[in-house]
């Protein structure tokens, strides 16, 4: 039998575990400072990676900051990209506020785009009401896509992460079926729907680049949701259910109704985001229309800590990051993988800094477990 005793004079090495403890008093200035530090670290790593790829550091500052946020053309591109991100970010925050992990934002955006395209292709309604009908159909489609996970969660206890995630693939494959089948463009035979009619089925521009009225709608929605969340009884109910649903139920609050309303609102907003991409940017249903919206929505909601106004700010910054990456890819012929790596490094830096602002990290040495017979 092997000798497992520890030699004299030597102490056994105990395993080390990282423990994250929530900070009690996290003030807004601490959060802003952490985000600024995270952004600075991410940009520093970006400068180093692009310098290794042959891009001058001064050009990185010009493309990632000055052009994106301080030039009229770049800022217009940023606001166009931010418009659907604001809406899907609000969608993710609406569900996460009450503890429902809606990972199906992308699928719900797909369904919203499908329903809006159906109204356009079938010429439903008068030309003057077409856009409104497309938006309402998109919201109904997104809410309908969120309904099965809600029912399965409430009735059978099925994990909503699994159901909402799997429905993303259902929606994406349904789009493939449509654009390769009955909705294939008859003019070009390419796998996308026919183009939306200008002035009838496209969101009107605001005279600033490609910025359209969807931006005004997104900001108006954010203002309305802020009033509901911060200045109404419903907002207090949502906060109570999100904090502890059992305590809220014991206090007599309509927990089931609050959860259902928040989840269906999340799906409807995600569908509206899909409509804004289809009617404001693509002007048709395409194969990649809503790709990545779910990931972006969840990141935005978490960085904003589910707050309405912070969602708007984080969505604009995230859109600027995407626009800067696309610009760098075009002007410096960078591979798409490098652009995605840069965006990922910046996002990971910001998320890590935000986590360190909210949690204290300490090392803890784990002692040996007592023998089975010695346990109380």
Automatic annotation (TrEMBL):
Localization (cell): Cell membrane
Sequence intervals crossing the membrane: 32-55, 75-96, 108-125, 131-152, 164-183, 203-227, 292-325, 337-357
GO molecular function: transmembrane transporter activity
Keywords, alphabetical: Cell membrane, Membrane, Plasmid, Transmembrane, Transmembrane helix
Topology versus the membrane: Multi-pass membrane protein
InterPro entries in the record: ABC_transp_permease
Protein name (record): Inner-membrane translocator
GO CC list: plasma membrane
Pfam families according to UniProt: BPD_transp_2
